[in-house]
Prior knowledge:
The chain has 346 residues and is an alpha/beta fold. Helix content is 36%, strand content 13%. The chain has helices at residues 16-23, 27-41, 85-97, 114-128, 143-152, 168-171, 177-190, 206-217, 247-260, 277-285, 305-315, and strands spanning 46-56, 102-107, 133-137, 156-158, 193-195, 198-200, 225-230, 265-268, 290-292, 318-319. Strands 1, 2, 3, 4, 5, 6, 7, 8, 9 and 10 form a ten-stranded parallel sheet that branches. Helix 5 links the parallel strand 3 (133-137) and strand 4. The model is unreliable at 1-9 and 322-346 (pLDDT under 50).
Amino acid sequence: MSQQSATSTPTQNWTRDEVEELFNLPLMDLLFRAQSVHRENHDPNKVQLSSLLSIKTGACPEDCAYCPQSARYKTGLKTERLMPLDKIVEAAKTAKANGAGRFCMGAAWRSPKDGDIEAVAEAVAAVKELGLETCATLGMLNEDHAEKLNEAGLDYYNHNLDTSPEYYSEVITTRTYDDRLETLQNVRKSGMKVCCGGIVGMGETEQDRVGLLTTLANLEPAPESVPINNLVKIPGTPLADIENIDSFDFIRTIAVARILMPKSYVRLSAGREEMNDEMQAMCFMAGANSLFYGEQLLTTGNATVNHDQHLFQRLGINADQQIQKQPSTCSGGKDEQGHGCGCGSN
Length: 346
């Protein structure tokens, strides 16, 4: 493993019992503790903005139960080949103009081939020239592919654990938890930063959320970026009719993530379109200081730029870059029902 990043959270070897105790705190006590940790490590009124683009959509051979990009489910999603470089750069320019500081590119592959890596590396270099941080999520990476992406200038690689080790097989059977951990290790060895989180609301128990966050916090070092996704239920996927997670349980997950990983960016990711402003404000109080920004994630809708601008103004929150109002140029990527991938970033 590489040397610990100066900006990453020191590994503290949290036990599941310790993490469970945090989840069981009275909510106001938990929020106070999380906000105190947050203020010790971050500007409490500043949020990092990331924009996400699907550069290759659908036809994925995996069976992730939340994802309409799987070839195994009939969700009406239109399959698209790898996006041309000029289209990727155009989208990145729009994201920057709207205020995003990081541009994330996602492709629905189980694991990319050599030619895929070459094409993505070219896109990474072009986006870096615009002055944006770069992130990619392309599936499993071997050491050679991770090194090539690092050489191209990729700042972050996203590869979510999704849920606890115990619940994982209930959601995905086509790759193992150890497969995911191996990819994270290859990313670390290359020198790139890690973006790794999970999805809540997939029918898991609180113990599974404990397991997920304990695993994340005990990575060496902890991920620099931790996306917490609230499941977007997609018709045609196995989780389409799962019961919603309680809003306070989602907020608790954000707060515990902040306490366990003090220096990491904790990101509000998929599912934000369904959250009201009050819930999002409580997530910021709980320690969230990053979000996916722009009307489209990979294949799901998201809160509008204008809505987020107004919310930031009402809360007195400042973005990493000055936000300029500009019409969206999002072209879609949704299925026939107007939905998309429930994971938001993987």
